């Protein structure tokens, strides 16, 4: 159950842009950390029994001090799991360094294997975050580029492809609907802006974007363009 809560927590961060990630974290931390805390307590008790330290045996998880090694280790493992979910969605704990605890604060409980596992997980996520068919199409399209197109491609610029309808978005390689891409309001007016948080993944992607291709543009209301313009 705790693993599912951590996954949901990461999904909320990435796709829902909560107003206060720190408050969301602190409110639900007991549920987020529960399984790791029990595992660390069990490991601690086994060591205590082996070393004949009966007074160190923990009977009640609620009495574990937050600055104890047992609690901090469980908290570190919780962050590791949350970070793995964020990484698979193009983010990491560093995206929320002003709101969430960071790995740098857990040097006393972090091991060399922990760091190696985290780096390996990030590499695996990066290497597997593509579709083979899409890569084949990109390779074919790359071979058909003219000199000017090749020059733009080689500069590594980021483009966003948006469409007014779901069908058009499906037909465009890498396409998404304009409402999904820019978080447009359903009923825009002359003062509307996009629902994109400053620290969100969408905001970071738009900052790197040098070209926006908007299909079916003549059929789109000007309020939508203006909302995107204000957001940018």
UniProtKB/TrEMBL annotation:
UniProt entry tagged with the keyword Ligase: no
Biological processes annotated in GO: DNA recombination; DNA repair; telomere maintenance
Catalytic activity: ATP + H2O = ADP + phosphate + H(+)
Signal sequence residues: 1-21
Cofactor(s) in the UniProt record: Mg(2+)
InterPro entries: DNA_helicase_pif1-like_DEAD (IPR010285)
Record's keyword terms, sorted: ATP-binding, DNA damage, DNA recombination, DNA repair, Helicase, Hydrolase, Nucleotide-binding, Signal
Domain DNA helicase Pif1-like DEAD-box helicase as annotated: residue spans: 162-232
The enzyme's E.C. designation: 5.6.2.3
Any one GO molecular-function label of the UniProt entry: 5'-3' DNA helicase activity
Family recorded in the similarity comment: Belongs to the helicase family.
Name of the molecule in the record: ATP-dependent DNA helicase
Lineage: Eukaryota, Sar, Stramenopiles, Oomycota, Peronosporomycetes
């Amino acid at each position: 159950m705790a693993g599912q809560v951590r996954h949901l927590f990461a999904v909320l961060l990435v796709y829902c842009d909560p107003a206060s990630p720190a408050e969301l974290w602190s409110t639900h931390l007991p549920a987020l950390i529960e399984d790791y805390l029990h595992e660390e307590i069990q490991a601690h008790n086994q060591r205590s029994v082996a070393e004949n330290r009966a007074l160190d045996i923990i009977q009640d998880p609620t009495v574990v001090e937050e600055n104890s090694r047992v609690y901090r280790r469980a908290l570190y493992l919780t962050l590791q799991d949350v970070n793995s979910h964020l990484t698979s969605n193009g983010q990491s704990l560093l995206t929320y360094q002003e709101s969430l605890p960071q790995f740098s604060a857990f040097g006393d409980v972090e091991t060399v294997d922990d760091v190696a596992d985290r780096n390996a997980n990030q590499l695996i996520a990066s290497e597997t975050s593509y579709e083979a068919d899409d890569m084949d199409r990109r390779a074919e399209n790359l071979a058909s580029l003219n000199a000017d197109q090749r020059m733009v491609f080689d500069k590594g610029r980021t483009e966003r492809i948006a469409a007014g309808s779901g069908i058009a978005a499906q037909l465009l390689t890498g396409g998404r609907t304009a409402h999904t891409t820019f978080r447009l309001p359903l009923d825009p007016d002359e003062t509307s802006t996009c629902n994109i948080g400053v620290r969100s993944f969408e905001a970071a992607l738009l900052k790197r974007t040098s070209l926006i291709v908007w299909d079916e543009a003549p059929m789109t209301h000007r309020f939508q363009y203006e909302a995107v313009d204000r957001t940018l």
